[in-house]
UniProtKB/TrEMBL annotation:
PANTHER family: AB HYDROLASE-1 DOMAIN-CONTAINING PROTEIN (PTHR43433:SF5), HYDROLASE, ALPHA/BETA FOLD FAMILY PROTEIN (PTHR43433). Residues 62-86, 133-158 are annotated as: Disordered. Residues 62-73 have a biased composition (Basic and acidic residues). Coiled coil: none annotated. It comes from the Bacteria. Residues 24-272 form the AB hydrolase-1 domain. This is AB hydrolase-1 domain-containing protein.
């Protein structure tokens, strides 16, 4: 496990790698306002180790978005970048790591970014795994824009948007940790792991240059999308929680239908969240099958 700061256009991004750089590369793209720590260490190692004794592993890369973790951080309320920068950072990271292409695994906003990368930079994408996200139809890769016919968030999720909890005292680490934990719990499914969430929240609070700056993601805007999901040629896997309160499962089904040959796998007990440990027995083998040398067959 190696952490490094990489220079990209207009920023330094903190990235961490697992496994052998000679193995197929997997780039993990996180959700809005979240640091790379939400991709659990053990999950990254499971992907890096591969699924068979003596079989090929994976070179797994996770990174802090701008304004999260140890990546470049602007003052809260004053981001110096655009949504297009967030969407282009995966390719910039691949350039900095001297990787020609990678298997992209994106969750929520990261799923939108992965979709945009596959549409606009197809030569850099070996495959797509899209989790807890929705078909990208507009120019905003972190809005996860579903079509008007798709169901909206649950009443409980809508209530959180209409009346969000107050910001914590950002100088009080314990208050920040509670804020992060409550934010994750609100969107998780029945398989919510309180201990693991607390562990990750503590790490995020300790690693972040300024945890308040992560909210800058909600302020940035993007230009129009240069293409559609019909243009995606990369083998695609859609993983979606059956209990997602933000994007009900119909969003995953619509996404799988929009990408030619995509495979949809619904996850029991999972909400709108990074894959919890209870789902790893499904998620890890599915990703490893898709990213195996030669690729998984498309259905």
């Amino acid at each position: 496990m190696t952490e490094t700061l990489l220079d990209v256009s207009g920023a330094q991004l903190c990235a961490e790698t697992f496994g052998d750089p000679a193995d197929p590369a997997i780039l993990l793209i996180g959700g809005i306002a979240s640091a790379m720590d939400w991709w659990h260490d053990d999950f990254c190692r499971a992907l890096a180790d591969g699924d068979a004794p003596g079989g090929p592993g994976r070179f797994v890369v996770r990174y802090d978005h701008r304004d999260t973790g140890r990546s470049r951080t602007d003052p809260p309320g004053a981001p110096s970048y655009t949504g297009d920068d967030l969407a282009r950072d995966p390719v910039r990271l691949l350039d900095a790591l001297r990787l020609g292409r990678a298997h992209l695994v994106g969750v929520s906003m990261g799923g939108g970014i992965a979709q945009q990368t596959a549409i606009e930079h197809p030569g850099r994408v070996a495959s797509l795994t899209l989790m807890s996200t929705s078909p990208l139809t507009g120019g905003d890769p972190h809005a996860d824009a579903g079509g008007p016919s798709l169901p909206g968030p649950s009443p409980e999720a809508l209530a959180l948007f209409d009346d969000p909890p107050p910001d914590p005292d950002w100088g009080d680490r314990d208050a920040v940790v509670r804020h992060l934990v409550e934010g994750e719990r609100a969107f998780a499914g029945p398989g919510y792991d309180a201990a693991a969430t607390l562990e990750t929240a503590l790490r995020v609070a300790e690693r972040s240059i300024d945890p308040a700056a992560a909210a800058n993601h909600f302020l940035v805007e993007s230009g129009p999308l240069r293409g559609t999901l019909a243009d995606v040629a990369a083998p695609t896997l859609v993983l979606h929680g059956e209990d997602d309160p933000l994007f009900p499962p119909e969003h995953g089904a619509a996404l799988a239908a929009a990408v030619r040959g995509a495979r949809l796998v619904l996850l029991s007990g999972v909400g709108h969240q990074y894959p919890p440990r209870i789902a790893w027995g499904v998620v890890v083998p599915e990703i490893l099958a898709l990213t195996a040398p030669g690729g998984a067959p498309r259905t």
